[in-house]
Amino acid sequence: MQEDILLKINDLGVSFKTEDGIRRAVNSVSFVVRKGKTIAVVGESGSGKSVSSLSIMQLLRKGIVQFDHGDFTLFPQLTEQETTVAPTSELLTKLRGHSIAMIFQEPMTSLNPVLTCGEQLMEALIQHLKLSKKEARQKAIELFEEVKLPRAAEMIDQYPHQLSGGQRQRVMIAMAISCKPKLLIADEPTTALDVTVQHTILQLLKELQVKYDMAMIFITHDLGIVKDIADEIVVMRHGEVMESGLAHDILSAPQHPYTQGLLACRAVPGKKLERMLTLDDVEKGITSMPEVESSIPADTRTLIEINHLFKTYEKKNIFGKTTSTVNAVNDVSFIIREGETIGLVGESGCGKTTLSRMLLGLIPSTSGEIKYQGVDLAKETMTDWRKWRKDLQIIFQDPYSALNPKHTVGEALMEPLIVYGLFENDKKRKQRVIELLEKVGMPSSAFDRYPHEFSGGQRQRIVIARALAVEPKFIICDESVAALDVSVQAQVLNLLNDLKRDFKLTYLFISHDLSVVYQMSDRIMVMNKGKIEEIGEAKQVFHNPKSEYTKSLLASIPGR
User: Fold this and answer.
1) Digit-coded pLDDT (tens) for 146-188
2) Over the range 468-500, which residues count as b (16 or more CB within 10 Å of their CB) and which as e?
3) Which domains are seen in the chain, by residue range?
4) Label partner for 175 (CA 20 to 30 A): which of 8, 113, 169, 338?
């Protein structure tokens, strides 16, 4: 009904001025947001979903952005003058935070690192609600309690870096709801969060929406997580709306091939497919893949053996006396067999990354054994480690920070070949690098280009090529697909499995996405508070978990 409409976007067109000319980012986008309802805007990176939402908030950089056509109407009670795409600064101050609020994707970069979390929340309360500093502080504590932050009275005086990712996101939510906005825009609020944290954040948003009768625009690249939160869905690609309608209709019977592809690209909870479906597959009419079961025979040769491994951190006072200790890795033992992929899952802070860094000698262990081909690497010196590092490589979560922005892709990939004296000269090294780039699906022209010239998925392929350059036997994939679009994620997962077969690799695959871990792994290892909670065949751990902690992780999987 017309009276239920809170926001109406009509034929919105947005372009950006670049060195190469005008680039259209949003083209003729139209949809409505109704009171108390959630509309999910879904699409891959570059689809225009964030640009559309930032246009509503008028947060796009002036001088670079231009509104080509269209408009949006905010709240029927506002005058026509106040509902154009170019409202006055006075109106923007009134609208932002008070009538429309936004939760950004990465809270660490959205929060001011030099102000406490309480100060940042109190600023909005003082600005919009005209509260005194004392009143604002008390209100801030109440809001922190409302978003279920532990020890709210203490959190008020803590800085963003002292909180976990999930806690920082709760601070952002508290700031967003502080003035009881009519419309909340949530831009990828759960991306890269652990599955349990993701689940609790989604539940929290639903509860707050009902309590305050807010409308919500929920932006995401993953159709799977909107099942329990969205009333309507808008699917975007290349700045245009591909399909829109009721959430149930879109999810159960998508009409557009692109929407069908986005759904097909997701790892299916509890199913291991021969290979992941990609958008190209769907466009070719391939809509299903056979299931497979994989396991490594128990008598397969052991490549890595971990025995009673500990990593202890000590907290000391100003006099150097130890006041407390934390066991980041606590008496961990397991083996990795040649040619297998062992998945490692667990929440942030459970010790996954610490364990992986110890396996590579990047941080020393406190005690225990790390045996590689029978040699205890825990006892090796840094000099000794040099000869082993060629065999043991890692693919990091963020490929952009893993690549030197000053070096071309060719320089980045040739460097390890030079360090280890592989191949006779630079001509042959360049030839090898180009072969590697083509092997991971990149053109030879990438050799002379810089990291910033590529998309996230392309940069991840480059980092994979660099890991392969020195012909390793064992690779740690540390959240290597966590921040990628589902379609790109499917391509990278297929690539990793192809490379595993072609190069006879062994993987330790670390992820917070249990569906992806199941797709990739022969065995799964569940970690909690520095200890191994459970380890076993992927099928057994997923379908018949023994640990209550594992059961809670599985229960949090979206769409399960």
Assistant:
1) 998 888 898 899 999 888 778 888 899 999 888 888 899 998 8
2) bbbebbbbbbbbbbbbbbbbbbbbbbbbbbebb
3) 1-88+182-201+208-252 (3.40.50.300), 108-180 (no CATH), 302-391+472-555 (3.40.50.300), 407-470 (no CATH)
4) 8
